[in-house]
């Protein structure tokens, strides 16, 4: 079973009477744990998820290690940097979503992303009224 954090915008205040209901963004489900894709792809994963500072930082550290460290230490350092990026990737993504106004609204436990959406619909139907 995997844990998924649910990030959604708070409900907007109702508009004047007779106006259409304001549009809300669909919630985002972020899986908990280690990201193998972030470990393998490194800065490309961060850039794909629009984590620009993290992508630049990891790329800068990798290039600096390549130029400054001796060969026997370089491999271990690069692997360690990318493994650390894999452990931190999802937390950085959660922080970005919070900065964008999508704070954490809850946690869903499920086997897959589809099951997580189904369980979210059971637990919080107000959040899944607008599906992605």
Total strand count, please? 3
- State the major sheet: 3 strands, antiparallel
Alpha carbon gap, first and last residue: 23 Å
Order of helices and strands: EEHHHHEH
- Strand fraction equals 5-15%
Largest sheet strand order = 2-1-3
Q: Mean of the pLDDT scores?
A: 91
Q: Could you tell me the radius of gyration in angstroms?
A: 19 Å
Q: How many domains make up the coordinates?
A: 1
Shape: elongated
**Helical percentage:** 40-55%
Structural class: alpha+beta
Which parts are unreliable, with pLDDT below 50 for 5 consecutive residues or more? none
Number of helices: 5
Explain how this protein is built.
The chain has 132 residues and is α+β, with helices and mostly antiparallel strands. The chain has one domain. Helix content is 52%, strand content 13%. It is built from 5 helices and 3 strands, in the order ββααααβα. The longest helix has 29 residues, at 71-99. Pfam families: DUF2628. This is DUF2628 domain-containing protein.
